[in-house]
Design goal:
Layout: E1 7-9, E2 20-25, E3 34-39, E4 42-43, H1 51-55, E5 60-63, E6 68-71, E7 80-87, E8 94-95, E9 99-101
Antiparallel strand pairs: 1-2, 2-6, 3-4, 3-7, 5-6, 7-8, 7-9
Length: 103
């Protein structure tokens, strides 16, 4: 079953230095969807613990299975427009509407 448009939870405002978790979920897809987060239209990298992720100064953890995007400490650099895409290899992937977070 192809995924439906996911529901994204993105806070409008966040204080610098706080923990922010965004969530993305859709329930129709079978097999279960994987989720990809985007910031300002660019796909976010999944942090794998390799050196390349550290040098990119990644301050978040993205879980493609659960759809969560977790910032341990947000900075002004994390301000932007976020959306998430659900895909399970069946039909076309689905996106939620873009939401802006201001830090």
């Amino acid at each position: 079953v192809a995924p439906t448009a996911p529901v994204c939870e993105v806070p409008s405002f966040a204080m610098t230095g706080t923990v922010v978790q965004m969530s993305c979920k859709e329930t129709e897809g079978s097999p279960p969807s994987e989720y990809q987060w985007y910031k300002n239209g660019v796909a976010l990298l999944e942090k794998t613990g390799t050196g390349s992720a550290r040098t990119a100064n990644i301050t978040y953890t993205m879980n493609k299975k659960s759809g969560t995007l977790l910032f341990n400490t947000v900075t002004k650099n994390d301000t932007g427009e976020y959306f998430c895409e659900a895909s399970n290899g069946i039909g076309s992937s689905q996106k939620c509407s873009v939401k802006r977070m201001q830090v």
